[in-house]
Amino acid sequence: MNKPFFILCCSFLCFLCFEAPAQMKNVTNQTKNTETIFVTGYMNYPPFGYIEEYRRDKLDKTRYAYHSIFDGVMDELKQNSNLKLTYLYSPDASEDQFLEDINSGKTDIFLGVYYDTQKFQRTELVYPSLINNPVIVITLPEMAEKIGNLAELKQLKGAICTQERLSDYVSKQLKDYSLEYVDTPLEMFQKLYTGEVDYVFATQYFGIIEAAKLGIRKQLSFSKQIIWNMPVFIGVSQLSKSRKFLVQKLSSYSENPLNRQKIEKRLQDLIYDIELKNQGLISPVFVKKEN
Q1: Which of the chain's ends, N or C, has fewer CB atoms near its CB within 10 Å?
Q2: Do residues 226 and 134 touch, judged by C-beta distance below 8 A?
Q3: Beta-strand runs (E) in 25-120
Q4: Rounded-to-integer distance, Cα 152 and Cα 278, Å
Q5: Cβ–Cβ < 8 Å for 155, 211
Q6: What span, in angstroms and rounded, lies between the C-alpha atoms of 158 and 56?
Q7: Any long-range contacts for 219-222 (C-beta under 8 Å, 24+ apart)?
Q8: How far is the C-alpha of 236 from the C-alpha of 253, rounded, in Å?
Q9: How far apart are CA 176 and CA 168, in angstroms?
Q10: 160-164, long-range: CB within 8 Å, 24+ apart, which pairs?
Q11: pTM of the model as a whole
Q12: Parallel, antiparallel or unpaired: strands 44-45 and 49-54
């Protein structure tokens, strides 16, 4: 064989051996199908869904970030699958408008769904539930000693915040009580302090977090008895094109007991951080009552 021709052939074969894999890798990356999954939830209901304001520096404009107790679940879903997660939220809107999208399939995942509740009628629940959302009674310490059972509550006046998110079953049960519905946790606790109401109904974690923000958690009595318990699920739209895949992946995650422990730890860390941030701070509304 002609020596120059042999050298040329060898060089060409070496080029193919070294370059072909790189070209295959590039083609794979370019043609990789990354699917966008739209995620939404509660807009103002910590710890299950809430929007935080932040700035990168003093001169930066106000920015917003969405958070949920399920952040870790979504992070693992993203890491372990070929998905791009896009959060849909608005600081100026209720989550009701996003519920329409979850029921129509425009949104794929809703974080914080209740069983057998009309507003989630076209949402498939991911079993098992990773966390429960119990309803409890909050009173001033002196009133806690006077309430012996639930029957006595029906003879008293209570309050509940309209920011609460409840199952249909619990909402029906509340009709048996004399309740005033107020728009903010501040107004609700203020009525409790001034004696306008004898107690408040609140979901445990929302009540603790909102009291901690106002600096009054230690001055209130939180019932150890659970009045109603509501399992909270991650929901997948029944009309989502990725429904089967999402339900399978999320169910596999939820079935691991260690992941439920992660949620509980995240919850305790969140409450601790809020209390630490508001330590020593008491809303002016409650200072007079303190003195």
Answers
A1: C
A2: yes
A3: 35-41, 44-45, 49-54, 63-67, 83-87, 109-113
A4: 34
A5: no
A6: 42
A7: 219/140, 219/141, 219/286, 219/290, 220/138, 220/139, 220/140, 220/141, 220/189, 220/192, 221/138, 221/139, 221/140, 221/141, 221/143, 221/144, 222/136, 222/137, 222/138
A8: 14
A9: 14
A10: 160/188, 160/200, 160/201, 160/202, 161/185, 161/187, 161/188, 161/200, 161/202, 161/206, 161/210, 163/44, 163/45, 163/206, 164/45, 164/201, 164/202, 164/203, 164/206
A11: 0.83
A12: antiparallel
pLDDT digits (tens, 9 = 90+) for 169-192: 999 999 999 999 999 999 999 999
Q: Which residue has the tokens 């509660």?
A: 42
The residue among 85, 66, 77 whose CA lies nearest residue 126 is 77
Return the residue matching tokens 């009628």.
121
161 pLDDT above the threshold of 50: yes
Length of the chain, please?
291
Share of the chain above pLDDT 90, in %: 70
Q: Each residue of 88-115: pLDDT tens digit? A: 999 888 788 888 999 999 999 999 999 9
Average pLDDT over residues 56-68: 85
Which of 172, 181, 153 has its CA nearest to residue 230?
172
Other beta carbons less than 10 A from residue 25's beta carbon: 10
What is the DSSP secondary structure assignment for residue 143, as one 8-state letter? H
Distance CA 95, CA 120 (A): 12
Residue with tokens 């429960």: 132
- Backbone torsions φ then ψ of 25, nearest 5 degrees: -65, -45
Of 7-21, 50-64, 104-118, the range with the lowest mean pLDDT is 7-21
Question: Strand, helix or coil at 200?
Answer: strand
Distances (CA, A) of 107 to 48, 79, 144, 232: 18, 20, 44, 19
| Partners of residue 181 on adjacent β-strands | 160
